[in-house]
Amino acid sequence: MKKCPKCNEKIRYRDLLFLNRYKRLICKQCGSVLSINILKMLPFAIIVVVLGFLFGMTYYSTGMSTRWLKILISYFALVFFISPFIIQLKIDKIGKPKTSGNKGGNKGVSTL
Length: 112
What we know:
By secondary structure, this protein is α+β, with helices and mostly antiparallel strands. It has one domain. 45% of the residues lie in helices and 12% in strands. The protein contains three helices and four strands. A four-stranded mixed beta sheet has the order 3-2-1-4, with no helix packed on it. Helix 2 runs antiparallel to helix 3. 10% of the residues are buried.
């Protein structure tokens, strides 16, 4: 499981599952604001897109058989559930998020 780059506290799988480049995590132990390191994720993203394209083209060229549709859906489900293990985190330089006066609070920030 991934750890905070500052204090090495383990981060829950559930918190990483829906993390995207617009969301940030706050470490419960040290209070660091963490985000995804996009540049280190680029090779993984390229591989996912190329394989998805190849599976999709195979699905289309075989007359859209249900076997290839199952493989395509399984591939994207596997990528979705394995991505928290691949994610690279970095300490965000913006510091702690500011609270807004509206009811939404800290949108895009979840705690660990």
